[in-house]
Amino acid sequence: MNIGIIGLGLIGGCLGLDFRSQAYKVLGVSRQQSTCDIAVEKGVVDESSTSLELLATADLIFICTPIHLLVPTLEKLTPYLKPQAIVTDVGSVKGAIVANCSRLWPNFVGGHPMAGKTEQGINAAQLGLFVNTPYLITPLESTPHFAVKILTEIVEKLGCQIYYSSPEEHDRAVAWISHLPVMISTSLIQACAKEQDLNIRQLAENLASSGFRDTSRVGGGNPELGLMMAKYNRQALLISLTNYRQNLDEIIDYIAGEKWQELEKILVSSNQYRDNFIQ
Ligand code: NAP
Predict the structure, then answer these.
(1) How far does the centroid of ligand 1 lie from the alpha carbon of residue 11, in Å?
(2) 258 Ramachandran zone, left/alpha/beta (phi>0; psi -120 to 50)
(3) Which of 31, 136, 218 to mutate to test the pocket of ligand 1 (most atoms within 8 A of CB)?
(4) What spacing in Å lies between the alpha carbon of 85 and ligand 1's midpoint?
(5) pLDDT 10s digits, 42-99
(6) Do 141 and 19 belong together in one domain?
(7) β-sheet bridge partners, residue 47
(8) pTM
(9) What number does the ligand 1 atom closest to the CA of 32 have?
């Protein structure tokens, strides 16, 4: 099987390294020639090009461009595709993408690897990023079964745990655990950066250690990705943010009013409930 990858950045690059390590032939297309050259040098792809024509022999293609380019890229790709070719994407939002892509190509199956890093681009690509991470596949009722089956079989080889949902369920769930954390983490960094006392700010910067590293990681990541999450999953994200603000107000109220028992109750409950998310 020939695997095609469009967008040789972090996610596309990681997929290429993993698939090549499993002896698949990987054909990669990216926007810049320099990225294509690095991809070959790093062993991310067997062949690369800036032209989608390279993918005429691909059986399964992963579109790994920024979110706003997923649909336009598929639109440009379809004239080159084999009739049975399966196309998937890795976009962090699914509702707006899957409906449009499925109209453009019947053998389209939406997907989302739930793995990432703060860095972006081809030079951040590494082997094994997806091991033991969730990979959500979001077929529609009209999506052909053979396409879902083949994508599942290939993605399993990355060492992922596979889940299935509708695109809308995906967007609501990731609003809570992915898109909301990006916005909270961003506001944390912004709030710290606005400390007026320069001495205190500098001391805080020097003292920041593992706790701040963990809580600021997603807010300090790819700005384009954060913007796209907000634009393309706006409704679900706003619901999550509003709920979050209510919880934050509650905590402010407990501390301001010295309601230590109430505060302790939610700290204990959070300590226990976190395990439901982090196995
Ligand atoms: P990235 O590192 O910035 O990679 C995107 C790559 O797309 C760039 O390196 C760029 O390559 C290429 N590109 C841009 N326009 C293109 C075009 N018109 N045609 C072909 N290639 C083009 O971003 P990423 O983090 O891998 O994210 C890519 C996708 O993965 C997004 O849809 C995102 O939602 C999804 N995703 C990201 C994460 C994460 O944590 N990062 C996790 C899961 C899913 P050039 O160097 O050639 O310009």
Answers:
(1) 7
(2) left
(3) 31
(4) 22
(5) 999 999 999 999 999 999 999 999 999 999 999 999 999 999 999 999 999 999 999 9
(6) yes
(7) 27
(8) 0.93
(9) 47
